[in-house]
Amino acid sequence: MGTYLITGATGGIGSAVADLLYDAGHSLILVGRSAERLEETALRLVSPTALAVEPTAHPTGEDRVWTLELDLSDPRRIEAQLVRADLPALDGIVHSAGVVELGTVAEASPSTWVEQLLVNTAAPAELTRLLLPLLRVARGHVVFVNSGSGLRARGGWAAYAASKHALRALADALREEEPDIRVTSVYPGRTASEMQRKVRDQEGGEYDPADYMSARTVATVIVNALTTPGDANVTDVSVRG
């Protein structure tokens, strides 16, 4: 069984990946901004019925789940935050955290561009850089949860698409630079999640989860890539509903 670090682990695709990997017997390091939400997610995994009974209980090491509170909005601070963490060799990282803010080129402010480039691109790059020694030990696997916007930019999505196109470039470069580490980019279409709810609100439309792929469907594709036999590498995969 392996050890996997998952960013954005408290919701959406990241949470669904955590469910599948934990059920398969793997150990997890859940990464997020909120200590409270991380603890709730960890407790839900180790004891699905315990959350309602002991909402303040702390998961233990024997439960194969650890939590790591990280703020990915400032990649320059990630190294200092990681210093306190005693992490094991990693079999994989799933970069699932991300932000989205729609706006036309004529309307988008510099902060709109900067925030999305920092969280969606620079933070995964820095976290990967810092964890490369642990990944090399296990000849591990890095999965970047990209987006259809990482393949094609549409009007109103310039800043977000730019951050995802850059994420694709990061993955391609890393794959060439680190031949002993497998690197996968996953490009989901619209997925039922709180992020999708926010997108629909920005678009001025209604949000119905039934209209979109489930996060678990995308997570299944990601876990399949992670568990592909070692003589192959799933480099790029698009998932459409």
Describe this structure as you would to a colleague:
- With 241 residues, the protein is an alpha/beta fold.
- It is built from seven helices and seven strands.
- It has helices at residues 12-23, 35-46, 78-82, 110-138, 158-177, 194-203, 215-226, and strands spanning 3-7, 27-32, 65-69, 92-95, 141-145, 182-188, 236-239.
- It has a seven-stranded parallel β-sheet, with helices on both faces.
- Strand 5, helix 5 and strand 6 (182-188) form a beta-alpha-beta unit.
- Helix 1 crosses helix 7 (215-226).
- The longest helix has 29 residues, at 110-138.
- It is globular.
- The two termini are 31 Å apart.
- Mean pLDDT is 90; it is low at 49-61.
Task: Write down the Rg.
Answer: 17 Å
* C-alpha geometry: globular
| Largest sheet geometry | 7 strands, parallel
User: Element order, helices and strands?
Assistant: EHEHEHEHEHEHHE
Tell me the helix content. Answer: 40-55%
| Tally of individual helices | 7
Low-confidence stretches are: 49-61
Residue share in β-strands? 5-15%
Structural class, from helix and strand content?
Answer: alpha/beta
**Order of strands in the sheet with the most strands?**
3-2-1-4-5-6-7
